[in-house]
Amino acid sequence: MKKIMVDMDEVLCTGGYLEIVNRFLNTHYTLEELPGYCAEDMIPKERLKEYYEYFKGQNVYEYSYEIKDAVEVLEKLSKKYEIYICTAYYADVYKMDYGRLLLDKYIWLQEHIPFISPYHYIFMNDKSLLECDIKIDDRLSNLNGYGEQKYLFSSYHNGNVTEDELKEVGATLVSGWKELERILLDVN
Asked: Which residues span the domain enclosing 106?
């Protein structure tokens, strides 16, 4: 059975980080308004320390929502493939208890994707180390390394990726879970 590595943030779920920024700033930014990948880029530099303290008391995944069709298609894929959820849990930008972030991710996965065993959760930052047949991620850098098929999941922050960049890592840009379903399950 072929193995698929699926990223969590911006592939299975989204919105949590931005919601926390909006609550902190009392704003209504949308994902499309973000200048890059990180929602905290919207925080004025003079308020970053205050924001980090605020962030420590938040659960990002309490505010995250499932990406359209993700759970439905992932469940179908799990009948044909061995699925592993691989998600980063450490980032220097967040001055917080990373163990709590890991636990919050674990709980979200248990609640929203119960058909994937916790034995198939991988918490790591360097995804190039993973040996799998298929990789699905929203960050091109995470598609480096092993993988016969690599799919860059279209997201608010990767719209400027060029064909040359995709070719360099051997990746194909996909617009959503229904497209992945058609590719990986031969659904017409």
From this structure: 3-12+66-185
Specify whether the backbone of 153 is left (phi greater than 0), alpha (psi in -120 to 50) or beta: beta
Angle between helix axes 177-185 and 70-77 (nearest 10 degrees) is 20
pTM: 0.92
Q: What's the token pair of residue 126? A: 């360097």
3-state SS class at 153:
strand
Task: Find the CATH number of the domain harbouring 148.
Answer: 3.40.50.1000
- Among 157, 178, 150, 181, CA closest to 7: 150
Residue 154: inside a domain:
yes
Q: Which two tokens stand for residue 187?
A: 């659904």
Measure the CA–CA gap between 130 and 41, rounded to whole angstroms: 30
What is the model's pLDDT at position 128? 87
Q: How far apart are CA 130 and CA 143, in angstroms?
A: 10
